[in-house]
Specification:
about 450 residues; alpha+beta; Arc Repressor Mutant, subunit A; 4 domains; 3-stranded antiparallel beta sheet
Amino acid sequence: MNLAEFALGLASDRNVKQLKTIERKQTVFLSNGTRLEQAWTVTGSDKHGLPRAGDDDVLLALLKLASDRGFSDRQVFFTRYELMQILEWPPNGRNYQRFEASLERLTGVRIIAKNSFWDNSRKGYTSLNFGLIDDYAIMDRASRSPDLDALQLEMPLTHVSFNEKFFHSMQIGNVKRLDMRLYNSLSSALSKRLYRYLDKRRYKLNVFDVEMVTLATVNLGLDLTSKRYPSQIKQLLDPAHLELQEKGFLGSWTYRWSEDRDIWFIKYTFSKSAHSPQETVQPPSELFVSSRAMLLQRGFSSALATRLAKDFADRIPSKIDMYDQLVQSKSKLLTRNPVGWLRKAIEDDYQQVRGYEPPEERQKKEARSKVQKDLQLETERRTLEDKDLLWAIYTGLPSERRESIVARAKHEFRFLSADKLNTLNEDSPVLRGAILAFVQEEHALSA
């Protein structure tokens, strides 16, 4: 929704002036009557420059991929062919190069939004410095591991990673459904931008007023350096108006001069068929996100993980538990195709398999093991206490008696050489054990 308000880059596919930075400003009035000055500064990379008009198409297609996956992960995997289908571009080398060039420009973009980035969690504007895409990878061919069968879909290797702050804005619901068929059918970049801008407002209003120059420059990104007169601006806008009217989206538009403010306005009336409530994309559930992440960690493709998490999120954790235990035990069930087996376990809802212990059984076994361990520790503790008691008895004996016990204890080690035998004393663990044995024997007899 933020990108529908301010034009992202250039209004054409040429950068005649070799611009690297564009600043757009507008004034808005909040619901409480407060006047807010907004600025939207877009900077491109030195090598690839600012985004061009056609780059909007690529960005929207990428956003649709993220939306189809429930905005579950800012790293979105796909095939280039899949993207061509969304854009309705022929899947040929020329369009693949066009797509790659768009990614180069979009990745180099930085936007400084001063009082102009809508924070949907706070329901207000904020200032933010952000990018769109952090990184991307394009693969010429996808590969298939020879040990995978038809159960595992081909891994889509091409991916983009959206900027974290930008992606978070979409995750918290600052998005709206867009009719991609209508969008792709529009003949000009100007018509597409005008459609996105007006579509953002039509869900609340059937009639909408906007200042003409602000619309042309800030919202649509037109360069009015050589076309300053109102008649010239109208000539630029009217072809887009006519196309949107022909498509059944726009009902009518009229230009209105405001004597009080000395500026031109455009009054838009939307077609009744096009006027519908705003459709928002709900953030994905925690169970969906965690289930999909677990599948991705175990080798599933992004598309397959998304579908399974959407259809079977409630059963995935238990099947993952089953799968992980079989992997740990090196079960023969997973010899041929582990990921394919897990997929079938999820889809067919396997309840019990050979070699798997459910969590409740493992908990019982762990409880029994803990009891046994506690008993062992208690026995060892008592043994140590008994040894301490016997040693106290020994140290309380007269010296002659202790010497006699030491002599008897050393006699138990008479097989040792004289040198080693002489090194044994009360501090030697071996000799001390023998001493305690004799003390315990005598103590038992006396008792």
